[in-house]
Structure formats: structure tokens, C-alpha cells
User: Fold this.
Amino acid sequence: MKTDALAGIRVLDFTTTIAGPHCTRLLADLGAEVVKVEAPDGDMMRTRPPIRGGASGVFGYLNAGKRSIVLDLKAPAAVDAARRLAAGADVLVENFRPGVMRRLGLDYERLKAVKPDLIYCAISGYGQTGPAAELPAYAPMIHAASGYEMAHLSYQPGRERPDNCGVFFADFNSGAYAFGAIMTALFQRGRDGQGQMIDVSMCETMLGTLMGEVMRAQIPFEPPGRPMFGPVRTRQGFVMPAVANERTFQGLCRAAGRPDWITDPRFARYADRRLNWGALIDEVEAWSGALDTDAVMAAFEANGVPASRYRTVDELMDDPQLAHRQALQPIEDAGGSVNVMAPPFRLSAAETRVRPFSARLGEHTGEVLAAWGFAEGEIAALRSEGALG
Assistant:
């Protein structure tokens, strides 16, 4: 029988927007008790569309399975309450600009004094120290600052303007790295009993994806010709073949009915093929552009060429592979039921599933405070002092 791998782990979640909430939702998906601490006006994502019944779908996506409490950290009594909650937590995650938690008196150095085995994870644009540490950071800025956007642009021949941003790689990648670092720290704590500080840099996260560019910055090398991985036109649209080795190149030649390319001096050797890749794709498209996408895909499959048609997310929502893996799972919020993505990994002996609710703002404030050791009178006093919003 599967169990919750993180059952009994308490997480105090001071995160907002995307990177931090993505990290803590993964912890919730594995069974941790995640308490989301919100300001009286709530996480800004609560107001982001699409909204139905007053509930934001993207907020639910990022915060499923977490309990919500409100603490107005402008009130000293709320900060004191946050310290008490931290003393009962295993993990604290925050993604404020560096310096904010220190000014509140909720930084790692002060909290470890009351909870030595606390694992404290801070996600920021450039890291907690250094000349850029206190700069504001959002994913689109980090895409630009890290070199990612210019690297992506370099693979688009004829383009001069970087792309607009609507997919927030830096946020989701940084949240995933933070999740991995927290799991590592929990494992280490199980051996030595010690907590520690985790410092996640979004800029370094994105630079870490640019393997080729990091190497070329140190070892001068000018990539020859057209990028090797790109769309191939069909009569209806495009497909993406991955011609990554000699076997798949020869399969491409056979699929197109052009075995002569295998010995063509422009293409026979990898180095020459690389230099003449644009000419090769032009000739491939003379074949593929006259065929339906299904026919091109069938020819690739028959000849061992890895390839995919281009799909929209709308199309993917009905993919039988995703249905088989139960990759989309329902949550309930004020607007009803909506599907969100489950973790992309599965464990044979532990649950990896979305907890099926998204909390209303402050829904669990009294319940959580009571469960974490606050007496009824103390909770009433916090309310009267305005500490609970």
C-alpha cells in the first residue's frame, strides 16, 4: 500500500507568485502539511485570470493541498506568531527579495536559534548575497538577465528581436530545484539532525540550462550553419524530427525516398552535414511539404526517425498517455472543479498526487494556530490586535 512520503513534515510557506508556490505544492503533493501564510490581501495570484466563482485557476494550480492562514506581518504580534509557528515547522520556504525576512526578524539566523533543525529555503532572483542580491526579479527579467533569451534567439535564423514571454521557465525550474534541495536537506537532517539554509538563485538556475553556451563562452566555437533541431514543414503544418545520430539520419533519407543523401558529399559525414543542414532541410521539405502531417509522421515512424507533430495544450488535454498516467487531477475551489497537473514523477511505494482542494484566503487560520499550539485566548488576542488581518 502506498503511503505519503512526507507525512508528518510541517512546511511553513511564505511564498507568493510562482517559483515558491510551485516548490511547496510539490511538497504538498508528497503528503507534507503545507501552511500558506498570506497577507490580508492574499497572494497576488488569487486575482490572476482565469477566474470563475471568484477563484483563480492559476492560484489553485500552484497552491492545491495547502492550508491558508492570514498573518499581517506589519503587526508585531503577527511576527511573534510567525516565529512560534516556525518553531513547530520542519521546513520554511520564502521567495521575498533578500532582506525582507531579515527586516521582519524572520531570517534563518534568528529562526535557527529557536529551531536548530529548521530547513530554511529562500528563492530569489540572484541569490542571497552579492552585488545583485537585492535586485527585484521576475521570471521574464531572469530569462533576459541569464542569457537564456539571447541563446534562444540565436537559434532563430533571421530574427533580431527576442520573444515575448508567456511561459515562466525560470519560476518553475527554480521551484523544482528548491524542491530537490529541500529533499536533500531533509535526508541529511535524518542523518545528522541538523537544519540548514538553502539559497536558490533563479539566474543560476536558468544559466545552468545553457550547457552549450557556457561551453562556447570558454572554448571558442562558432556553430556552423542552421540549427539542427527545427520544424519541418508539411502540407498542414509542421513536425519536429530529432535527427541525432547516423542511424536516424539514414532513416530520414529512407523516409524521404532519398537514399542518395547517405552518400551525397554534402551530407555523408556529420561535419559536412552540419555545415549544409539548411540545404538538407530544404530538400526534405520538398518531399514533406507535399504530404499531410499524418503521412510524414508515418514515414518517419516506419524508418526509425524520432519525431513529433506540434500539438497545442488543448489537444494534449485529451492525450490517452496523460489519461493513463492520471497526469491531470481535479481540485475543488470556490469556482467548482478544475484539473491541474500532478507531479511529473511517480514513486512505486509513495503517493504522488494532487491534494484535491484550493483553500480560500485565511480559511484555516484558527484551525492551524490551534493545532500548532496556540490557546483559544491567544488566538482571540491576535484577532483583536489585528495580527490576523
